[in-house]
Amino acid sequence: MQTIAGFDRIGEENAFAVLARAGALAASGMDVINLGIGQPDFPTPPNIVEAAIKALRDGQHGYTPAVGIPALREAVAADLDRRFGEEVSPDNVLVVPGGKVTMFTAILMFGEPGVDILYPDPGFPIYRSMIEFTGARPVPVPIREENGFGFSAEETLSLITPQTRLLIVNSPANPCGGVTPKAEVDKLVAGLAEHPQVAVMSDEIYDQMLYDGEEHVTLLRYPEIRDRLILLNGWSKTYAMTGWRLGYSVWPDDLYDKARKLAVNAWSCVNAPAQFAALEALTGPQDAVGEMVAAFDARRKLVVELLNGLPGVSCITPKGAFYAFPNISETGWKAKDLASSLLEETGVATIGGPDFGVLGEGYIRLSYAASQEDIERAVERMHGFLARG
């Protein structure tokens, strides 16, 4: 049967393939420690769960507006104002079924044959996958260890051509845990004044997961690009709600109705009780967020210390998110081969760096959204494996 050509260009997120393989090995009796998938190991806070249950009991079973219930869009705008002091109109907020939907919408909006889209490498694999699906040319923006895994404004701007239509940035970053300093963001925004045709999608899904006194630099703070800025955020990471499939985006006036029309065509609306849960997440107590981030901070310090004790491995300290991206080039292993062997032979699930881009070779990704006990057991197994040569 003949298929549409674009579908042959779609990639995938290998973390889910690793998750499936880890599950199969666990079902066969292997003791598997999963440091591969990027999701908090905490449950969704009880008040959020209860809000969804109440919504169901109150009869919230029908369609909602395609862009999200008004109260939730207002709460998103109020939350951004509270945290960053930046005014956002609820009329620019779109509630979506997961962060990937914002990526899909933005890349589909700008991508077509003959145009360039810039994206981080190493970076979230769906960026490149969707760019290639549209027929646009994916242009990797190098994310380098020597820059603390933040982007270089100078290098990023040097890659922009007259064909560039969209720039994707991500800080705090997946998979490296890097946080781009404000000075670099300032330089990037200043340089974008020379490229008014370039829209920007800022993936800020990890914006509350920062450490060592780092503060999040949201691109909402730059009025000179607000008319071409698409903000991606959501509830999955911050409130341990990965399975609820909830995200939001902020769109400029000229693009909002286009995104709304895609919502109507593609998913109609986000399920009603989940939206009431999201409303409670933003307006209810925030203690659970701080407690979770504090736990991640302790795990971060532990995993970096332990990884740096492995033969042939070095790991800089991530400043954000919940990932470590150790350099394994001195082990003699190719990254994907090492990740596969660690899973099959020791039961430790990690992700090979090339699954996040060509510049990921020489690295593997570990999620420290796992218990300290599991982190210690996993790295001990890794040590035994690498020590065998």
What do we call the CATH topology of the largest domain? Answer: Aspartate Aminotransferase, domain 2
Helical proportion, percent range: 25-40%
CATH superfamily of the largest domain: Type I PLP-dependent aspartate aminotransferase-like (Major domain)
CATH architecture of the largest domain: 3-Layer(aba) Sandwich
- Following the backbone from N to C, one meets helices and strands in this order, namely HEHHEHEHEHEHEEEHHHEHEEEH
- The first-level CATH class of the largest domain is given as Alpha Beta
**Low-confidence stretches at least 5 residues in length (pLDDT < 50)?**
none
Q: Main sheet: which strands, in order across?
A: 2-8-7-6-5-3-4
EC number: 2.6.1.1
InterPro entries: Aminotransferase_I/II_large, AspAT/PAT-like, PyrdxlP-dep_Trfase, PyrdxlP-dep_Trfase_major, PyrdxlP-dep_Trfase_small
Protein name: aspartate transaminase
GO molecular function, one term: L-aspartate:2-oxoglutarate aminotransferase activity
